Amino acid sequence: MVNLDKQGNIYTLTFEEEGGNALDLELVQAMHSALDEVEENSKGPCALILTATGKSFSSGLSLLKITSYDSEKVLTFSNEMQRLYGRLVNFPVPTVAALNGHAFAGGAFLALCCDYRVMRSDKGWFCISEIDVGVSVVPEIMAVAKLKLSKTVLRDAVLTGKRFSGEESLHLGICDAISDEQNLLDSAKEIIAPIALKKRQIYKNFKTTLYGDCAKGMGVGL
């Protein structure tokens, strides 16, 4: 479900779930455990790549599974999902999302929580699709998109559910690089490797200045 690999000082967290890597409680908790491992086992400078397998980076929340949860489990999932976003947006090391395919809805927000994003040039949409699915986004999570997207891109993404290709995302600042599938992780490493050498505490302090309020809004202590 979740694999954490380390080469040098760069961790790669790769997740896989049936149904387009849709997010359910088990996957979210497994990702928390992987983030715990990065924080606990690497005290010096390092970085994290977040990626997935298959045709999608993440298709969003697994509505089929979530609607089968009882009320207590739904609340647990909601809290853990929001906490995951909060942890990632202010994670104490540099992060880059390598989008192996589509990033829809909750998957798009997951990508936005990372410091940088690399998309495939040949395949994959970035799409905040909640308006078409009929699902609301709470203000605490929408705050991530407000931080990471320009006002016009945010308007079109949220109010129309527009799908952005890799090339268009690069032009509009949604992502920082595009690559073919074969070189996707190498492109992510090119972005993150120089930043992985930054002094960790200083990087954390500056990142908290940028994103700390957003993380607090999602219940993450600093």
Task: Walk me through the topology.
Blueprint: E1 2-7, E2 10-15, H1 18-21, H2 25-41, E3 47-52, E4 56-58, H3 63-66, H4 71-89, E5 95-99, E6 102-104, H5 106-112, E7 116-120, E8 126-127, H6 130-133, H7 139-148, H8 151-160, H9 166-172, E9 177-179, H10 184-195, H11 200-217
Parallel strand pairs: 2-3, 3-5, 4-6, 5-7, 6-8, 7-9
Antiparallel strand pairs: 1-2
Helix pairs in contact: 2-4, 4-11
Describe it.
With 222 residues, the chain is an alpha/beta fold. The strands form two sheets. The chain has a six-stranded mixed sheet with strand order 1-2-3-5-7-9, with helices on both faces. Helix 2 (25-41) runs parallel beside helix 4 (71-89) and helix 4 runs antiparallel to helix 11 (200-217). It has helices spanning 18-21, 25-41, 63-66, 71-89, 106-112, 130-133, 139-148, 151-160, 166-172, 184-195, 200-217, and strands spanning 2-7, 10-15, 47-52, 56-58, 95-99, 102-104, 116-120, 126-127, 177-179. The longest helix is centred in the middle third of the chain and has 19 residues, at 71-89. The protein contains eleven helices and nine strands. The protein starts with a strand and ends in a 5-residue tail after the last helix. A hairpin with a 2-residue loop joins strand 1 and strand 2. The model has no long low-confidence stretch (mean pLDDT 95). It has a single domain (2-217), classed as 2-enoyl-CoA Hydratase, Chain A, domain 1 (Alpha-Beta Complex), CATH 3.90.226.
